[in-house]
């Protein structure tokens, strides 16, 4: 994939959620996050892709246009068909989802592909070998979106940073207070859902997360 796209995996990585973003305010909240400094915006919607195809395509297409306007990377979560429909530049999948080799054959090298590896360095190594453009680890903290997700130790992120030469994304319960520790441990991007979109002031919340990359806080002592 183009080097400049891989370099785009940095900073605040905002992920949409229909619970915090009902359709009436969906685009307003998404644009507020982009105004606040989100550099990556992922469309994550677990609705039925067949029954809700029109809504999902409409929302994804609108987000792609917004991301183009703000110079941010637009990512579709776990839906290659939607990627094709709206010509999204990036796709995020789970480690057990469609094999990367098949995705590469279908989309070529121009599509940015990220893979969730949870707490597994082995999964991350396999993803890198298969051609992933970035890998994500988490949940690092208690997550409102996935309360049952196993917690990941910061040492996993440190080891990944020392070994892997692709961008690393941290996810799971990230706040303005704990995000700095993840950046210090090696995260290139912080994936945030409720920390941004549950806020009454989405733009201000996004701006505070984005500022962590300039002035990290809570840097862990060795």
Automatic annotation (TrEMBL):
Q: Quote the protein name from its UniProt record.
A: Thiamine-phosphate synthase
Record's InterPro entries?
A: Aldolase_TIM, ThiamineP_synth_sf, ThiamineP_synth_TenI, TMP_synthase
Give a yes or no for keyword ATP-binding in this entry: no
Give the organism, scientific name: Acidithiobacillus thiooxidans (Thiobacillus thiooxidans)
Give me the reactions it catalyses: 2-[(2R,5Z)-2-carboxy-4-methylthiazol-5(2H)-ylidene]ethyl phosphate + 4-amino-2-methyl-5-(diphosphooxymethyl)pyrimidine + 2 H(+) = thiamine phosphate + CO2 + diphosphate; 2-(2-carboxy-4-methylthiazol-5-yl)ethyl phosphate + 4-amino-2-methyl-5-(diphosphooxymethyl)pyrimidine + 2 H(+) = thiamine phosphate + CO2 + diphosphate; 4-methyl-5-(2-phosphooxyethyl)-thiazole + 4-amino-2-methyl-5-(diphosphooxymethyl)pyrimidine + H(+) = thiamine phosphate + diphosphate
Q: In which pathway does it act?
A: Cofactor biosynthesis; thiamine diphosphate biosynthesis; thiamine phosphate from 4-amino-2-methyl-5-diphosphomethylpyrimidine and 4-methyl-5-(2-phosphoethyl)-thiazole: step 1/1
The UniProt record lists the Thiamine phosphate synthase/TenI domain at 12-196
For this chain's record, the cofactor binding note is: Binds 1 Mg(2+) ion per subunit.
Give an example GO molecular function: thiamine-phosphate diphosphorylase activity
Q: What is its EC number?
A: 2.5.1.3
Indicate the segments annotated as coiled coil, or none if absent.
Answer: none
Function of this protein?
Answer: Condenses 4-methyl-5-(beta-hydroxyethyl)thiazole monophosphate (THZ-P) and 2-methyl-4-amino-5-hydroxymethyl pyrimidine pyrophosphate (HMP-PP) to form thiamine monophosphate (TMP).
Q: Which gene encodes it?
A: thiE
- Cofactor(s) annotated in UniProt: Mg(2+)
Q: Pfam families given for it?
A: TMP-TENI
Q: What does the entry list under GO cellular component?
A: cytoplasm
* Residues annotated for 2-[(2R,5Z)-2-carboxy-4-methylthiazol-5(2H)-ylidene]ethyl phosphate binding in this entry: 143-145, 173, 193-194
Protein residues bound to Mg(2+) = 78, 97
Superkingdom field: Bacteria
Which sites bind 4-amino-2-methyl-5-(diphosphooxymethyl)pyrimidine?
A: 42-46, 77, 116, 146
One GO BP on record is: thiamine diphosphate biosynthetic process
Q: Which UniProt keywords apply?
A: Magnesium, Metal-binding, Thiamine biosynthesis, Transferase
